[in-house]
Amino acid sequence: MFAKKSKFLTGILTGVLALSLVGCGTSTPSEEKAEKVNLTGAGSTFAYPLLNQQIEEYRKNNLTIMINYQGNGSGAGIKQVSEQTIDFGATDGPMTDEQLKAAKGGKILQIPLTLGAVAVTYNIPDGPKDLKLNPSVLADIFLGTITNWNDKRIATDNPGVTLPDLKIAVARRSDGSGTTYIFSDYLSSISPDWSSKVGKGTSVNWPVGIGGKGNAGVAGAITQTPGSIGYVELAYAVQNNLSFATLQNKEGKWVAPSLKGASAAADATKIPDDMRVSLVNAPGADSYPIAGFTWALLYQDQKDKAKGAALVNFLNWSIHEGQTISEGLLYAKLPADLVTREEAILKTITNEGQPLLK
């Protein structure tokens, strides 16, 4: 199954993470007369493969809408939307109260676009393909206190598995990253040491490790470094044929990263009205412990009516019809009840007091 999906993903996750859909398709006379709208977005590399495909599909029936989305990391997406240099951002870590207060264009809304799993991937030459890592072991590896693959604590959960005498090389993000937010949020939830010494955020002071830019950069670092371990969105692990660990969830069950596990985590979590929520270490036997949303970031008061209407209609399509693309790219569909709540939020977006989504 993953092999077929890996072929489907080829070409999406490599190269420069930017998409400019200008001049796609054939326009009709009426469309040529219609006002063309250019939208720019930036942020999450976690959701880039899905946004890439959604934008391409949306353009097929909306030829006057040009959308340029650059996957340059959640930190960049938050910064650029706050400074009003783009029309929308995307982040895998919700904006903080301080960040929201600093935004120059007024109130920012955060709309979940998708959810997925962060895979803990590793490169052990001739090593196990089904490695088990319990929460405390995983935290101590990234804290730098477990430094060798044949450590007794790793071996305890992997009886009968031959682990090499090989140094562990941690690979992590070098840029502001929502994937880092999800991963560090998880480690903070299960490790008091991590919580007190490192904490959570789109950028953290890593105790150890080599940095890579974007999910693609971390995947590349793991591929090229024997003995390495890191974290990437599941699609990047599959695309790069990386081995990924089975983790122990809150109920003590061993679970691999999957769409089912991400959906179970969302279903088990109460989502507040502002949509800012953590899905990590969620209860439930089927919940995968390192799951999270990607949120679209946009201003509730849109200054440009044409751009605002185009953006709101694209996002409305994304949370409805656009979800049919999700599973083929290893993202879970948004829960139906959440989609209904999101649509209501989109209807509050206005230009000069008038709603843009009818």
TrEMBL record:
- GO aspect biological process, one term: phosphate ion transmembrane transport
Q: Does the keyword Transport apply?
A: yes
Cellular component terms per the entry's GO annotation: ATP-binding cassette (ABC) transporter complex
Q: Which residues form the PBP domain?
A: 32-319
Q: What sections of the sequence does the record tag as coiled-coil?
A: none
Keywords for this protein? Phosphate transport, Signal, Transport
Any single Pfam family the record assigns to this protein: PBP_like_2
Fetch the PROSITE patterns from UniProt: PROKAR_LIPOPROTEIN (PS51257)
Which NCBIfam families does this one have? Answer: 3a0107s03 (TIGR00975)
Q: Which PANTHER family match?
A: PHOSPHATE-BINDING PROTEIN PSTS
The entry's family comment says: Belongs to the PstS family.
The protein's name is Phosphate-binding protein
Query: Organism classification, top ranks?
Result: Bacteria, Bacillati, Bacillota, Clostridia, Eubacteriales
| Gene field | pstS
